Structure to design on (93 residues):
């Protein structure tokens, strides 16, 4: 049971980091909204009121990358839980 609690704690930390601290975004600005950069930023930096040459940059969250990262973390947790469940069943018998 201890392994399960540790794995769930690590999973929650990974989800927090991916969903709040390192959010993948695309920065666009200018008259034609051309892509300037793709980077990882904390969620609170998405509200930016600075201007570049009288244009306000727009940030678009890359939802596909967020979903992939959360999906991979969930899959890793599921496999780890299945492995720990099988190893605990073998140690009992």
């Amino acid at each position: 049971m201890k392994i399960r609690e540790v794995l769930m704690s690590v999973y929650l930390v990974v989800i927090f980091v991916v969903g709040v601290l390192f959010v993948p975004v695309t920065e666009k600005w200018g008259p034609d909204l051309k892509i300037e950069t793709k980077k990882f930023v904390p969620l609170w930096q998405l509200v930016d009121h600075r201007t570049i040459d009288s244009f306000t940059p727009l940030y678009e969250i890359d939802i596909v990358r967020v979903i992939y990262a959360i999906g991979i973390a969930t899959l890793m947790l599921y496999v780890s839980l299945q492995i720990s469940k099988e190893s605990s069943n073998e140690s009992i018998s």
Remarks:
- The chain is about 55% helix and 20% strand.
- The chain has a mean pLDDT of 85.
- Helices lie at 2-21, 63-92.
- The two ends are 17 Å apart (CA to CA).
